[in-house]
């Protein structure tokens, strides 16, 4: 099952990623200063994924990616893909499984490694 994963950036801001059923990141959100804003954005995006826009781009190095646009605002950017067909498959995964995706919050986990 696809998931929305909430985590913290090194800067202290919060973000969420939409991951596929196979565990690959499909897109990453913009930064949010507060965790509750990030959680609210996940809920909102999850409810409108079927109706939002996906704008496709091609980098100068020939890679493809897309941006998720909700109400004329860019809310997330996808990972880079090698072909345009893979971009379309990523978008299809979002529209098919996004509204049913579970939300995992890893923003409070502090991972400690002993020396």
TrEMBL record:
InterPro entries: DUF1508, YegP-like_sf. Residues 61-105 form the DUF1508 domain. This is DUF1508 domain-containing protein. Pfam families: DUF1508 (PF07411). It comes from Flavobacterium frigoris.
